[in-house]
Amino acid sequence: IMSMYRYLTKLLTHIRVAVAHGQMPEHELENVMLGFLKRDGFYSAVVEAGIETPARSAAQEETRTVSLRVEPGPKVRVHSVSITGNQGIPEERISRQMLTRRGGFLSLFGRGLLKEPVLKDDVAAIRGLYLANGYLSARVAPPAVALSADGTSADVTILIEDEGPQSRIGAVVIEGEAPGVRPSRWIDRLP
Questions:
Q1: Which residues have CB under 8 Å from 125's CB, separation 6+?
Q2: What one-character DSSP code corresponds to residue 63?
Q3: Helices 26-39/116-132 angle, 10° precision
Q4: What is the DSSP code string of 84-138?
Q5: Do the Cβ atoms of 152 and 75 come closer than 8 Å?
Q6: Where are the beta strands (DSSP E) in the chain?
């Protein structure tokens, strides 16, 4: 199965391929299907998997029937994104790190859809932004998503739980000498 998966992903680079089979636990089958749906903006999708192993005689090969009940629901568009708890880095700077955004004109082409994997990547990007700016202990909570009554739009809130202190480099000291390298040359290059 895995060799066929690798073959298909190399051959068909423009499509997504995942592996699901009757030897997997039901919750893993559900997660594979949910992954496909949530990447396409079906944020509130529900998947239920079932595996049946019919009775067989000793001469028969074991077979399993995998059934998936899928309720994709509507595609969910981002109505708003808000960032709270930030003090050291402005909201508009944090927003630029995120791919999750309100739709607008380009929403016809899939922009503005709420995609769970992208939202997870956004949290990691925000954490990276804080690290790059010296906030070594910053904590970003998992996003809070509030769906509209009809389930077609969502308000996303990102909470910066704690920025922590900002670390700064106080001084750089170069001691010793390396053949052919002048210490002043390295100090001149520091910002």
A1: 97, 98, 99
A2: -
A3: 80
A4: ES-SSS-HHHHHHH-S----SGGGGGTTTB--HHHHHHHHHHHHHHHHHTT-TT-
A5: yes
A6: 46-52, 65-71, 77-84, 139-140, 144-147, 153-162
For residue 51, which phi and psi values (nearest 5 degrees)? Answer: -125, 125
Express each pLDDT in 114-158 by its tens digit: 998 899 999 999 999 999 999 999 999 999 999 999 999 999 999
Q: How many residues does the chain have?
A: 191
pTM for this model (two decimals): 0.69
With a CB cutoff of 8 Å and minimum separation 6, the contacts of 119 are 100, 143, 145, 156
Which backbone phi and psi does 13 adopt, to 5 degrees?
-65, -20
* Nearest CA among 82, 69, 1, 81 for reference residue 37: 69
181 exposure class (CB count in 10 Å sphere: 0-12, 13-18, 19+): exposed
Burial status of residue 165 (CB atoms within 10 A of its CB: 0-12, 13-18, 19 or more): exposed
Looking at the chain, the whole-number percentage of residues with pLDDT higher than 90 is: 42
- Burial call 93-120: b when 16+ CB within 10 Å, e when fewer: ebbebbebbebeeeeeeeebbbbbebbe
